[in-house]
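> call design_seq(struct)
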């Protein structure tokens, strides 16, 4: 652990949020840090006087990369997701209740026809 650093797992982790029905990536952040060791001059085969006062550090951060994409930043992708997911799910929901209603109506009609046929004899 280094003095002055406060690592935050939420801010430094790599993650991907995927919509489970379509497999479309909603959010993606890939975070990478490149480190290099830094040695004091006395620990090197050929000492460099300019490095005499440097403390040896096993992992000195050189580069931090945060590549990310959010679907909210692209209105076309939001429209595409709604077209591919929300609209078909709404149609399926309406179709489900319509099929249940038709089934109940056929059941009631069959029951009524059976009742009329048995009572009419």
């Amino acid at each position: 652990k280094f003095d002055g650093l406060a690592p935050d797992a939420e801010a430094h982790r790599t993650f991907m949020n995927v919509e489970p029905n379509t497999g479309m990536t909603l959010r993606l952040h890939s975070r990478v840090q490149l480190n290099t060791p830094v040695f004091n001059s006395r620990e090197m085969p050929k000492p460099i006087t300019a490095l005499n006062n440097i403390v040896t550090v096993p992992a000195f951060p050189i580069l931090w990369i945060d590549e990310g994409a959010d679907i909210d930043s692209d209105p076309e992708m939001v429209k595409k997701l709604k077209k591919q997911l929300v609209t078909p799910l709404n149609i399926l929901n309406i179709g489900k209740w319509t099929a249940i209603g038709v089934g109940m109506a056929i059941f009631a009609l069959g029951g009524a026809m059976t009742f009329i046929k048995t009572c009419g004899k």
